[in-house]
Amino acid sequence: MMAFHKEVVETIYKTVVICDKCSKEKVLHIGYPLTWEGHMNGALRQDYTFMEKGNGFETLCPDCQKESVE
Ligand SMILES: [Zn+2]
Fold this sequence. Notes:
Structural class: alpha+beta
Radius of gyration: 18 Å
Strand order of the largest sheet: 1-2
Bound molecules: zinc ion
Number of domains: 1
């Protein structure tokens, strides 16, 4: 006699970077959760950037970066 039981045990993390100005999202990674460095590097690879603003940082997508230069 054999008994089987199946369940989903895998958790998949989807990490997205969000532009603070236009709220445009870009998927950085799907799978394991990213480290802090992974977040930064992933965002930079998607041409997002971090601008100093007030006491923190503002995340900007490539389009909004162009706007803020002018
Ligand atoms: Zn933007």
